[in-house]
Amino acid sequence: MTRTALLLAILGVVAVVFPWIAGPYALSVATLILYFAYTGQAWNVMMGFAGQLSLGHALYVGIGAYAAGGLYYHLGIGPWLGLPLAIAAAALVGAIIGWLAFRFGVAGVYFALLTIAFAEFTRIGFDHMAWTGGPGGMFLPVAERDHIDLVHFRGPPALYYYAMLALTAGALALCARLLDSRAGYYWRAIRENEDAAQALGVHVFRWKLLAMAISAGMTAIAGVFYAFYNNSLFPEQIFHTGRSIEIILGSVIGGVGTLFGPILGAAVLTLLSEAVTAALAALGWEVPGAKQVVYGVVLLGVVVFLPGGIWPPLARRLGIRR
Amino acid sequence: MTELLQARGLAKSFRGLRAVAGASFDVAEGEIAALIGPNGAGKTTVFNLIAGVYAPDAGTIHFAGRPIHGLRPDQVCAAGIGRTFQLVKPFPALSVLDNVVVGALRVERTVAGARAAARVVLDRLELEARAAQPAATLTLSDRRRLEIARALATRPRLLLLDEVMAGLRPTECDQLVEVFRDLHRSEGLTILLIEHVMRAVMALAQRIAVLDRGEVIATGTPGEVVHDPAVLSCYLGEDTEL
Amino acid sequence: MPFEFVVGGVVAGILTGLVYGLMALGLSVIFGVVRIVNFAHGELMTVAMYAAALLFARFELDPFLAVLPVAAAFFVLGYALQAGLINRFITRPEHSQFMLLVAIGLIVVNALLMAFGPDARGVQVDYQLESFELGDIVVDKARLYAAGLAVLTALALIGLFRFTRTGKAIRACADNHFAARVVGLNVKRLYAITFGLGAVCVAVAGCSLTLLFDVTPSVGPQYTLLAFVIVIVGGLGSMLGALVGGVLIGVSEALAGLYISPSAKSMLSFGLLIVVLIVRPQGLFGRRR
Lengths: 322, 242, 289
Hints:
heterotrimer; B: alpha/beta; 6-stranded mixed sheet; 10 strands; 26% strand; C: mainly alpha; two-stranded antiparallel sheet; 2 strands; 3% strand; globular
């Protein structure tokens, strides 16, 4: 058994038994970690693998959430139909944005700003549409929380935890497969040098588009989860640029382009955030903003002193390749 | 001999500046040809026209009987032309092996197959000892070899080499010449060199086309070209190291 | 809708737009030279707005006078930020630069929140309610002064880049970083000066804007986005483009506010941004790279 497999096995066992040993608070924190691990992984496909910097991934979360949430709210249809719809819609939007950007040679900083612009544009648009409830929000009917209703994805917190755990594990497996496939090789070649990739026969435009569509589609699944976990959707919240940044943070802190970086980064950041809250409360220093300042300072420290993220040096120490 | 590459009346201008003005030349199947000329003669532009980086303003390029002018670089590669870059463009964060795997995937169906094929190519270019290290850590000479390995992994019928000798020491240059000779001998690979280093051109090329101010002013064997008065006047007075 | 009303709205849009333009000019200058997108731009401006509001609350200092100390302090702040932190990120990948400035922005927003709470702050001076009347068209005094100051500052900056040694050296740096180093220019110092000058634009715009809008800690990111829209529309790196882009956005927001709904006005701006990015990514006044 390799070290990687051993590590995964330990993590997997801990993750599976976690709801039995953890209280409701720990479970919600763990669910949040998994949520950011998953979305960070999805973002990483585009940036870490294919080198396309998206600063507007909240767009795909929102599309997923409103596709499935809207279907449930307006027609009472559970997420199982909403899910494929959400994936398809987000993948399509991602592909359209990519098509426009790559066709017209929008790259680098300009591409990043374009992704923000689309997310903001959609945020304000959704705020003015009747079917979303606008700024007043869309509230999904909440049923009895104690029994499990898989058809409508309703149940106790552990259900959502396991759903997110399955998604995260699935995303990890998918990304590992992707990285070792033709797509993974071509994406990394494009990330490293587009001209050289093209000279080796890589249809750069098509593969970049595929990375965007996959990344957007994966992110939309998190959106569906978000809708049924939070039960309330506000365009102002879900499409906000701050949400896009949260998605990116974990990957950057953990290590862009690595498989375990997004997971580690999400865990570190979420736990840090909770720890700071607890520490400030213990000190009796609960000034609004204090937590984010500490958070910002830590972020600054990591960005300045560990430019490749936390995972690569840690992996070296553990003797793991990626 | 059949012509593998045929360029006819190629022209390309950049903002009114005529870089290539009606250049025509052929490369025969199985030969090593060279395109030489003084600085600014349009060599690199011709190269980029063949490789699909630019579309020509006028003229045609046929490869194995098929028109390839105006195709994208990846389509040119798919047609069977491999290239190197004058300023090397490795994938720096990828391992040497993975660099070559990207090329091998053009012909191999599976990643495992591509990996095996890449190892063969690395072996051939004596880079197998470096397979696992990131391309960023290679010396210039090894980066050049890596570029050639990557291009060869796409199994081209024609290999375009853009000043692969530039910046190399004479011994490194000679070693590379040996590599090309060997490839040519054992696989019948057709090679078009665009080259400044005359030492390599004279050692390798069977036929030379001389480019000056965007036009081909002479073609022939190395022996014929160096005695051509037009070539002598335009070019050989300059910085040649015969 | 009465015609004078619309014209008045457009004039107000132009004037506000000039102040926006000055803010964006700072972003554009920094990007044009240092090649870093300042993702904390709006956040820095809110610091200037708070400084002006505090100087007014404590000393009854008119924001137009507060401009001087605030701008001086911002030059030092900008210089220090670039010299101490951002200079070492110049060769890092874009996402790394982005995270650095996001972290700075996060700290700024929340430090303001800690210090001053979430409530809106502003200044009240007597000429804020006064206006000039040109026929039927009403122009706010404060807005006109603010726009005038913005134009003056922009002209001063353009003059500085054109006529001073340092300005020329900075332009040389922007044109060709490598050559600038070869001829012995201290590129890192010039970058720091540039960031300082960009911060001065932010300071002047921020002080002026306190007369037009109240400030809360959370408006920073919105101003950052606004600055992005303006510089992309005008052309990242172009000084004239930033001002024209500011006016364009100011007017389009004013019209959208009048005809559609005030809350939809920035949708129009983002729509414009998307169109410009796709059709003419170098912006209206940018050079093709």
